[in-house]
Design goal:
disordered N terminus; 44% helix; 17 helices; single chain; three-stranded parallel beta sheet; D-Maltodextrin-Binding Protein, domain 2; 2 domains
Length: 368
């Protein structure tokens, strides 16, 4: 329901008449391509009212979809939101992104310098992207259902999903894994005690063996947005996905008052930390409007509204006091320093390594 309301609100915002500030003709339209359920509709409406720029807003549900749109060139988009690894870094290396003009981004300095340094491995000098939101990869669980089937189950560990003896028992209440080799394989490798960026054949074989061992018990391998919807309605009791998806699903389930109790688990073994970036394609038709939009989003009150709407943390320290207390005090949204210390990031892989992982993932999906 929330997704439909967001979509309706965004469409309505896109149709609002241009108001106070006239934009030059070439800037009158801004084409945005973002993850689904990943914006505060009020932010889009406010930007339009303040600038006179009309926003055409499209959504995607996987990095593969985004890359497919960008790979052929002339996508028509002005602002995109790729994840730092691997998509954003690949686009940087391919020259597919326009370097940001800092002179047009006076709000750039609002970002957390420490977090910016963490994404420099993907974008040396932070030349091509500003941080939009960030989060971790972990588990969404219905603890009550899990406890019914496994009274002594380790609710704080990836063991819950990746140990076949647990997965077999939990199959009865539904297991899902998001369809993203990029975001699942590093966590599996890390759980195995291997390098999350490993390209070693033995490490990849170990990861494949672990995944195939639980494949008979996995009900669905689907886009994260679909996992969000299904978690909210109680279809799965364990799902591997993004932190914010689980937190959004919990909010929907709580609102529905159907007795579905959800929680997000950042695995004690350590969780993958990722960043979603605001970037401008090299051939963006409206680069001036794109810079205005990015600068607008980097305002503390705007980012606070987005975090309140989608329950992902932002990289603007001055926004934190403006975030609703229940959100900013939730360690699953804003991880504690101890939790952050256990996270890991991934780096870009060679095309050969990416192909090897893709083949591994396809075998996992096929179950052979």
């Amino acid at each position: 329901m929330l997704r439909r309301l967001l979509a309706v609100a965004l469409c309505a915002a896109a149709l609002l008449p241009a108001e106070p500030v006239p934009a030059r003709a070439e800037e009158a339209v801004l084409n945005v391509y973002n993850w689904s359920d990943y914006i505060d509709p009020a932010a889009v409406e406010r930007f339009q009212k303040e600038t006179g720029v009309q926003v055409r807003y499209d959504v995607f549900d996987s990095l593969e979809t985004l890359e497919g749109k960008l790979s052929a060139g002339h996508s028509g988009y002005d602002v995109i939101v790729p994840t730092s690894e691997p998509t954003f870094s690949r686009l940087v290396r391919a020259g597919a992104l326009k370097p940001l003009d800092r002179a047009k981004l006076p709000n750039w300095s609002n970002q957390d310098a420490t977090l910016l340094r963490q994404v420099e491995s993907s974008d040396p000098g932070n030349r091509h992207g500003a941080i939009y939101l960030y989060g971790t990869v972990g588990l969404g669980i219905r603890a009550d259902k899990v406890r019914e089937l496994l009274p002594n189950a380790p609710l704080d560990s990836l063991d819950l999903l990746l140990k076949p003896e647990y997965a077999k028992r939990l199959a009865a209440c539904g297991i899902a894994v998001m369809d993203s080799a990029t975001d699942v394989l590093p966590s599996v490798l890390h759980w195995l005690g291997r390098d999350a960026d490993s390209t070693d054949g033995a490490d990849l074989q170990a990861a494949e063996k672990a995944l195939l061992a639980i494949r008979p018990h996995v009900r669905a391998i689907i886009a994260s947005g679909n996992i969000l919807d299904a978690l909210a309605t109680g279809e799965y009791c364990v799902a591997m996905t993004y932190s914010g998806d689980v937190i959004q699903a919990k909010a929907r389930a709580d609102e529905a008052k159907q007795g579905i109790q959800l929680r997000y688990v950042q695995p004690k073994e350590g969780a993958q930390l990722w960043f979603d970036m605001l970037a401008i394609p090299a051939d963006a038709p409206h680069p001036e409007a794109a810079h205005r939009f990015i600068n607008f989003l980097l305002q503390p009150e705007v980012m606070a509204g987005i975090t309140n709407a989608v329950h992902y943390p932002n990289a603007i320290p001055a926004a934190t006091p403006l975030v609703e207390e229940a959100v900013r005090e939730d360690p699953n949204v804003y991880p504690t320093p101890e939790m952050l210390a256990r996270t890991f990031t991934v780096r870009a892989l060679s095309p050969q390594a990416e192909r090897a992982r893709s083949r591994l993932w396809n075998r996992f999906k096929a179950g052979r």
